[in-house]
Design a protein that fits this description.
The protein is α+β, with helices and mostly antiparallel strands. It is built from 16 helices and twelve strands. The strands form four sheets. Strands 2, 6, 7, 8, 9 and 10 form a six-stranded antiparallel beta sheet that branches. Strands 1-3 form a two-stranded antiparallel ribbon. Strands 4-5 form a two-stranded antiparallel sheet.
């Protein structure tokens, strides 16, 4: 007899068939040295009890986890710096597994997380970077530099601390190969990264189906992504689905801005349908307010500069909307896209309130605080670093004495500051007891500026010294 509906396995991306992905094998690496294991993330999917040998088997040699069919390289297209590229797809990574979150407090030693049958949590992807060549590698070697892996771990940890929806670096294993790269000193060490992410279905996944004229694939993708990631949207409602993605993407862009983060490469294959940030290549955090700050040396015209990120995300959303046009109504799809601006402003206000640790006082007062905060950062110039503003003035007037007696006391003066302080003090602190956390007893906040990132890598590269790397992660997680 067929299984009952209650026990029928849920659809996963693996089940969509070979029109959406290609079965692949991981590279046979000469070495497997575990450099980073994210047990905090592993506990969310019931994998924290794996032994080190089991961990390396699954995330270095990529033996499938129980209930998983084996890796697939996902197919997609995309606009890269606004030029359409139909020759994309997973070229140095694959989807290794899809796993349900485990309820807090559940026993997670075995199949609950892996099989996903008993857990009501989100469906999460384990995806790789640097796991070898695929049919979409083109001329690439399918590998990842160890430095690139280290940088991705650091970016994800910092973004998670700052409240940005982000993939998590799950595992980093050094693989013992010497890689040649044209944009950094070579040969350089190699690694394979595994990330835990809330979907790898990109805008470009839909673009590929539209490019091929496959309305059947578009309808399949829509129902798959809608049912798993935006279940409040009615079946077949392309505009409702787009509206949900628009709102999630607006929230993501707002959170990047509040964090002072520059992703670097906002192509349509680097944005997904859940509004979760992933794939950290040439990222940077702002040292100070600089709207034109870019993270990628090859972004010569500043297309993805700090202040242009919301524009870039909206442009990418219009491409997703265009891909859905053949299965949706043009007018309602346009209405969904038009919701980006208001959603972004609302999410930006909320993000700045959260970073400043104060409660909403209504749209007008919240907007005034946002405007005054940005004016303070702008007028402060290079002397006023991004993170210290939020560190010194967290919880508003509750931090006043601490801020004016701290190392930046001389910065807290002038017309821009007076306006900021007035707007901030209008708002009640949100859980001011959080100021008792150890981080606020320290004069300086945790930052992730490029000089520190390079120092962490220099210690690893020169002396195989991982102490700075692990100490940084410990501090980011401590409080």
């Amino acid at each position: 007899m067929p299984p009952s509906v209650a026990h029928r396995p849920e659809p996963r991306f693996f089940d969509l068939g070979d029109e959406f992905g290609d079965a692949v094998r991981a590279a046979d690496f000469p070495q497997h040295v575990l450099r980073f294991r994210n047990d905090r993330a592993a506990a969310e999917v019931g994998l924290e009890t794996l032994t080190q040998d089991e961990w390396v088997a699954h995330f270095g040699r990529f033996e499938p986890l129980p209930g998983q069919p084996g890796p697939i390289a996902m197919r997609y297209h995309g606009h890269q710096f606004r030029t359409y590229n139909p020759d994309l797809g997973d070229g140095r990574g694959f989807l290794a597994a899809q796993i349900r979150e485990v309820p807090p407090g559940a026993q997670t030693a075995g199949a609950r997380g892996v099989n996903g049958s008993a857990s009501p949590g989100r469906l999460l992807d384990l995806g790789t970077k640097g796991s070898g060549t695929t049919p979409w590698s083109r001329a690439g070697d399918g590998r990842l530099t160890l430095k690139g892996g280290v940088r991705e771990v650091l970016a994800a940890e910092m973004l998670q601390r700052l409240g940005v929806p982000t993939s998590r670096a799950f595992s980093l294993i050094e693989t013992g190969e010497a890689l040649q790269r044209g944009d950094e000193p070579s040969p350089t060490r190699s690694a394979v990264l595994v990330r835990l992410s809330h979907s790898h279905i990109r805008f470009g996944t839909f673009q590929r189906a539209a490019y091929l004229g496959r309305t059947d694939q578009l309808e399949t993708l829509l129902e798959h992504a809608r049912s798993l990631y935006h279940p409040d949207v009615a079946p077949g409602d392309a505009a409702g689905f787009l509206a949900a993605v628009v709102d999630a993407s607006a929230r993501l862009a707002a959170r990047w801005i509040a964090a002072g983060f520059v992703h670097g490469v906002l192509n349509t294959d680097n944005l997904n349908v859940t509004g979760e940030s992933f794939d950290y290549g040439p990222w940077r955090f702002l040292p100070h307010y600089e709207p034109g700050f870019t993270a990628a040396y090859f972004d010569q015209f500043g297309l993805y500069a700090f202040s242009r990120q919301p524009e870039a995300v909206f442009w990418a959303l219009t491409q997703l909307g265009g891909a859905l046009m053949s299965i949706g109504d043009a007018a309602t799809l346009t209405d969904a896209l038009n919701g980006f601006g208001p959603a972004y402003i609302g999410h930006l206000r909320a993000a700045f309130l959260e970073r400043l640790g104060v409660l909403s006082l209504g749209e007008a007062a919240d907007q005034r605080l946002l405007d005054c905060t940005l004016a303070l950062l702008r007028e402060g110039g290079e002397a006023m670093r991004w993170e210290p503003v939020f560190h010194d003035w967290f919880a508003g007037f509750s931090s006043s004495a601490r801020a004016v007696s701290g190392p930046r006391a001389k910065l807290w003066q002038g017309e821009a500051f007076d306006a900021f302080r007035f707007a901030l003090f209008e708002h009640e602190p949100d859980r001011p007891e959080r100021l008792e956390a150890p981080r606020f007893a320290r004069a300086e906040p945790e930052e992730m500026l490029i000089d520190e990132v390079e120092a962490i890598w220099a210690a690893i590269d020169g002396d195989d010294d991982w102490a700075l790397f692990h100490d940084k992660i410990a501090r980011l997680r401590a409080d």
